[in-house]
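Support reply, case 0932

Customer input (verbatim):
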Amino acid sequence: MKIFINGTGIAGGFGCGSNALLNRLRTGATCEPSSQDGYYPAFYADISSLYDFVPKKALRRIDHFSQLALTGAYLALNDAGQDSFDKMATGLILCSGYGSAKTTFSFLDSIIDSGDNCASPTLFSNSVHNAAAGHISMMLGIEGPCLTISQFEMSVSSGLLSAIQWLCEERVGQVLFGAVDEYFDVLGYCYKRWYGSNGNISMSPLAAEIQSAVPGEGAAFFLLSRDKSANCYGAVTSVNTGIVKDLKDNLSEDSFYILNADGHIECDRYYSEIIPEGSLVSCYTPYYGSIPVGSAFDMVIAVISLREGRIFPAPVTVRRPDNYRFQGQDCTLNQENISCVKTGIKGEFSIITLSHTG
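Our regenerated output:
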């Protein structure tokens, strides 16, 4: 069963909205990470478009993680032309690798600084696992089922499988499906301790000998439905997950693969075990950084490619191993399917395949 994508919303280090991402894809201009906390450079997301939908005063008790999620949700609904929708027939699924870790650590700091009795109740309420989904539901008035899923690198595929199941079982008419992660100083501290200062190293995915991951943050949302709208981008045709060593079915050489290789050599080494030699591939992580929910960002790029009928060249910093075919310049997309592939540190993988709506 095809699940149609009727709207998208995205924010990241490249800017806010799919047009900002499309501009990066067309020009090939990579983003420059900044070091705002002094620990490690990162790609910080732009959420300025949120203020077009929600007054700033209504957001003063909502943390950055939830604001990222709200930005993606509002942009997706706006892109789908659904300023008003059936709130009872709409479900919400939110995926995150780290969750609201920044707020959780801030809450723990408030306990250390002020004791149990004076710890911040605002930080506590925003630190619980489903806080961001709760904010979206309340702001948008969604009354359908609501679910938050966290499974590190496999969060997006797990959440997407749940969304597809809801739609197949006709529990809801549509699902607002989103993925969000934020950068936080503890993560930057860990990066610095594990990988060093990073210096002036560019993010170089698929460079087997270089650990070049640069953390990012952002949100990517989709409005999914059994029914195809006039604004439809494409369709999700399959979601496959598993362990690399147990993969039995060979992937097709005729598909176009978007690899979520993000500069972590422990994860990037598995792509050569999944993707058939000589396959047409690309990688766009230098536009938004290393992020557990990066598959969702690649899904947005995939549906943009389907709509535009184009394959966009990978950023120049992406290494190009000889066993893959990389497109050196913008060209026509001749493939029917685009598969977004992500691997994890323990050899787990997800393959999300999207196609034209026909």
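We compared this against your earlier run and they match. Two observations from our side: Residues 236-355 form a domain with the Peroxisomal Thiolase; Chain A, domain 1 fold (CATH 3.40.47.10). The CA atoms of residues 97 and 152 lie 4 Å apart. Please reopen the case if you see a mismatch on your end.
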